[in-house]
Specification:
The complex is a heterodimer of chains A (211) and B (325). With 211 residues, chain A is of the alpha/beta class. Chain A has seven helices and seven strands; from the N terminus they run αβααβααβββααββ. Chain A has one domain: Beta Barrel (OB fold (Dihydrolipoamide Acetyltransferase, E2P)), CATH 2.40.50.420. Helices cover 45% and strands 27% of the residues of chain A. Chain A has a five-stranded mixed barrel. In chain B, the strands form three sheets. A two-stranded antiparallel sheet of chain B has the order 1-2. A two-stranded antiparallel ribbon of chain B has the order 3-6. Chain B has a single domain, classed as ABC transporter involved in vitamin B12 uptake, BtuC (Orthogonal Bundle). The longest helix of chain B is centred in the first third of the chain and has 30 residues. The chains are: A alpha/beta (211), B mainly alpha (325). Strand 1 of chain A pairs antiparallel with strand 2 of chain B, so a sheet runs across the interface.
Chain lengths: 211, 325
């Protein structure tokens, strides 16, 4: 009997010690003072959109200029103009295109763009705007400034949401076949085997310049 | 003379996993010069440590003629619980309290959660006589759902350097996960060979009715065995989480199949009563070496699955052939 009591006492002591070393309890109100504020993705993106992104859109290369850069020195062109935070060959950049609307489809608008002797078609995505293309192409977000990927992904979500809710509705609602359109947006190219044919642009800015 | 022949056959059966592994290593070493390097060796050992932990628990279950399909999901849930408690603790706004967890506390909580889930499996199997395949299949889904709820579908990352040491650190020139797997294996060998529980496990798997008639409390033994397997899955979950420095909601998917494969390749009979922890370790090493070799040889991931499946099939056929003799 005595041995049993000692056994249980020892067991209780060990459990008590483990519990003491395992948890600590403090007042939640005290903790909230110490705890850093959670990342406010909408506010961060709003500031990015209003203050830094316009300059990047202005300085974006035209598709023809980008093609010339890629032809001259692909390595340098990718290094200078493209960016990606992910592992893989796909890199993103912002481009400007001006062209005539060939067709208005459910998911995209097809433009005919480029000089008369080097014309090509590009698609402007008007339905599915997802992924990190716009964030990475803007080159405004640095991975080292963030402690986790969730916050980084939230920036993409917010940027895409802004395009879907603020840029596209007005454009989609008015654009028609034959219109002249000015659009700046993000494209993704595979560094290993890139082609500017059949490009899809995730728009950030779209204007109808002539109806 | 017949006795000597039988003894030789038994020794050969015991050695077949080892022979298979040596042959496999020779073939891969001939085909890839990167295989027999120290770095790759440590890499393989580090990778198989998680499978060894899960497989050891699975072996105990299979020895009782049971199976546990939930270990992969339990691994994910326990990894997430450990990471969540370590990083966020528990907030009780109504009581204005925050319960924080130290590294020790979060590790214990993860392992206890794993043990509790295993015990629940055992409880359902013994109390309601639900076949282990069905009850653990249900737990597979439940635990995965709970993981999604706990993590809200997002990874829990940045768990600190101390926690990372468990999965990526070194101790006395050997990776920490290898130490952990070694301790788990030694404890399991001790339990199966030197304790009453070990003898009961073999007895239940060999002949459950005879075990009942011998006065063995089979329900109690099964509860303990499923509890141990759950706790070991949690240990695996902690190792995976630590290695990635992140608890992934979809971690451990398919791990149960690797564990069962290690057990089967290691010579443990799926009908229970026959097998050993050493065999399972060898099975896990074979799978690890095979995975590593196929990657080094640039074999497509799709073919890797086919090859792995074929190896398991061959192991079972050889095992069946050996028993017929």
């Amino acid at each position: 009997m005595a041995r049993k009591i000692i056994k249980y006492l020892l067991l209780t002591a060990v459990i008590g010690l483990l519990a003491y070393k395992s948890v600590f309890i403090i007042k939640l109100s005290e903790l909230q003072v110490i705890e850093p504020k959670a990342f406010d993705a909408p506010a961060f993106t709003q500031q990015l959109w209003d203050t830094k992104l316009p300059a990047k859109l202005d300085s974006a290369l035209t598709l023809d200029a980008l093609q010339a850069e890629l032809k001259a020195n692909p390595g340098r062109a990718f290094e200078t103009y493209f960016n990606s935070m992910s592992i893989g060959n796909v890199q993103y950049t912002l481009v400007k295109v001006t062209g005539k609307v060939l067709s208005v489809n459910e998911d995209d608008v097809v433009l005919l763009t480029g000089a008369r002797d080097a014309q090509r078609t590009v698609k402007i995505a008007t339905e599915y705007v997802y992924g990190n293309a716009i964030r990475d192409a803007s080159r405004l977000v640095k991975i080292k400034d963030f402690v986790n990927t969730t916050d980084l992904n939230k920036i993409s979500e917010e940027l895409n949401k802004r395009v879907r809710t603020k840029v596209l509705p007005a454009f989609k609602g008015t654009v028609q076949k034959g219109d002249s359109v000015d659009c700046t947006g993000a494209i993704g190219l595979n560094q290993a085997h890139y082609s500017l044919d059949g490009l899809e642009i995730l728009p950030v800015q779209c204007k109808i310049i002539q109806q | 003379m017949i006795a000597i022949q039988k003894n030789n056959a038994l020794n050969l059966a015991r050695l077949q996993s080892l022979i298979a592994m040596v042959v496999l290593c020779i073939i891969i070493a001939i085909m890839s010069d990167k295989f027999l390097t120290m770095d790759n060796g440590w890499n393989v050992l580090r990778q198989i440590s998680v499978n060894i932990c899960i497989s050891v628990g699975m072996t105990l279950i299979v020895l009782t003629a049971g199976i546990d399909l939930s270990v992969g999901s339990v691994l994910a849930l326990c990894g997430a619980i450990t990471a969540g408690l370590l990083k966020n603790g528990i907030k009780l706004p109504t009581l204005d309290l925050f319960i924080g967890f130290t590294l020790l506390g979060s590790l214990l909580a993860g392992i206890i959660a794993g043990g509790a889930l295993g015990l629940f499996n055992g409880f359902v199997i013994t109390k309601f006589k639900v076949p282990p395949f069905v009850s653990t299949l249900a737990m597979l889904t439940i635990a995965r759902g709970l993981t999604m709820l706990w993590t809200q579908g997002h990874p829990i990352s940045n768990l600190g350097p101390a926690f990372s040491t468990i999965g990526t650190g070194w101790m006395l020139g050997i990776p920490v996960p290898v130490w952990i797997a070694g301790v788990v294996v030694l404890l399991a060998i001790f339990i199966t060979r030197q304790t009453r529980l070990g003898r009961y496990i073999y007895a239940i798997g060999g002949n459950e009715n005879a075990a009942i008639l011998s006065g063995i409390s089979i329900n109690k033994v099964k509860l303990i065995v499923y509890g141990i397997a759950g706790a070991l899955a949690a240990v695996g979950g902690i190792m995976v989480t630590s290695r990635l420095d992140s608890a992934q909601p979809n971690a451990g998917t398919g791990y149960e199949l690797d564990a069962i494969a290690a057990v089967v390749i290691g010579g443990t009979s799926l009908s229970g009563g026959k097998g050993s922890i050493g065999g399972t370790v060898m099975g896990a090493v074979i799978i690890g070496v095979l995975n590593n070799g196929l990657v080094l040889l640039n074999v497509s991931p799709f073919w890797q699955q086919v090859v792995k499946g074929a190896v398991i099939l061959i192991a079972v056929i050889i095992d069946k052939g050996g028993k017929k003799k």
